[in-house]
Write a structure and sequence with these properties.
- The chain has 332 residues and is of the alpha/beta class.
- It is built from eleven helices and 14 strands.
- The protein has helices at residues 56-62, 80-83, 86-92, 122-132, 134-143, 149-152, 223-228, 242-247, 252-261, 265-275, 291-299, and strands spanning 17-23, 38-43, 46-50, 70-74, 105-109, 153-157, 178-182, 187-192, 202-207, 212-215, 234-240, 280-286, 306-308, 313-316.
- The strands form two sheets. Strands 6-5-4-3-2-1-14 form a seven-stranded mixed sheet. It has a seven-stranded mixed sheet with strand order 7-8-9-10-11-12-13.
- Helix 10 packs across helix 11.
- Bound molecules: zinc ion (2 copies).
């Protein structure tokens, strides 16, 4: 059955550059009412999604984002809290009957960490999803006249530049951001971040005619984050509140993982200051704390504005603008 509810497409609300923190929680654990990590970057009415945490399908719809306006998807890494709802998002946003996408959509993200050991990357994950749901997909192609979903999805596993030679889940070399995607509205760059033992793990930067947005993905305090966030108008950075876990008597292994794989609020502040980021939004919150507890640590190291993201918050980005539109008239 198809839900017949049709709503007005997004218009003025989505002019310029906006960031929507669709979901803000780390996982996989339900520790708050917040949906899992997912971030939308909206540029003049079309949007780009970064990660697919639990709840992204409903959150994007409630924000007014429809599949027909989706341009491309970016996956930072293959931890389940970042990809768990990718299947549902695709199946709920495909084809005309649901105001879904009818043109090809690219999904970019990590390749296999170890192909010889049989570890699958993003292409394998999406392929398994499409196969797993092929009965439903095939029925809808015939029964509802939808275009073949298989032909609308193209996965690009992000190749690593020479500067990443020797990189692994335990070692991340210093490198410059490298361009992974570009269209008439955005140029997207990636960089390896440090999220051991996961490899690869990326941060992404969106440069637009209106300004720049950086999404950290999951990372410990990282020099590469400083590089990719240089001069960013908005830095969406993950964070962990260790006292929450300490108070619950989590074991030393778990606390150590949090420490070496995630960033304390103070660490976010140091990264933002070194990068010269103009504004910080904390999202992908690991642990539960008050807004004051989250922001105090950042503010100890950073003088700029800091906001703790809420699911569904829309941030308008007004920056210097760093990208001339490639096609005249598309970003007036
Ligand atoms: Zn995560
Ligand atoms: Zn992770």
């Amino acid at each position: 059955m198809v839900d017949p509810v049709i709503t007005e497409p997004p218009t003025e609300r989505w002019s310029g550059l906006k960031v929507v923190t669709l979901g803000t929680a780390a996982g996989p654990a339900i520790r708050s009412e917040c949906a899992g990590i997912a971030t939308a970057v909206v540029v003049d009415g079309v949007y780009y999604l970064v990660d697919f945490g639990l709840g992204v399908t409903r959150a994007a719809h409630e924000a007014g984002l429809r599949g027909e306006d989706l341009r491309a998807c970016f996956v930072t890494h293959l931890h389940s809290d970042h990809v768990a709802e990718l299947p549902a998002y695709l199946l709920w946003n495909w084809g005309q009957p649901v105001q879904g996408f009818t043109e090809p959509v690219q999904i970019l993200g990590p390749g296999s960490a170890d192909p010889e050991a049989g570890a699958i990357g993003l292409a394998g994950l999406v392929d398994h999803v499409l196969r797993g749901y092929s009965y439903d997909i095939d029925v809808r192609i015939v029964d509802e006249g939808r275009p073949p979903l298989y032909d609308l999805i193209s996965v690009e596993e992000i190749g690593l530049p020479d500067s990443a030679a020797g990189a692994s889940g335990e070692s991340t070399p210093a490198m410059d951001p490298f361009v992974v995607y570009a269209d008439d509205r955005v140029r997207v760059s990636a960089i390896l971040v440090e999220h051991p033992p996961i490899f690869p793990a990326f941060a992404f930067r969106f440069d637009t005619a209106y300004g720049s947005v950086v999404v950290s993905g999951d990372t410990t305090e990282s020099d590469n984050m400083v590089r990719i966030a240089a001069g960013a108008d908005l830095l969406v950075h993950e964070s962990v509140f260790l006292d929450f876990y300490r108070a619950l008597d989590f074991g030393p292994e778990f606390l150590n993982h949090q420490l070496i794989s995630h960033t304390t609020p103070e660490g976010v502040g140091r990264v933002a200051t070194r990068a010269g980021a103009r504004r910080v939004v904390l999202s992908h919150l690991a642990g539960v704390a008050t807004d004051e507890q989250w922001t105090a640590g950042v503010a100890a190291e950073y003088d700029g504005p800091v906001t703790v993201a809420r699911p569904g918050t829309v941030f308008e980005v007004v920056g210097s603008g760093t990208l001339a539109p490639a096609t005249a008239g598309t970003s007036a």
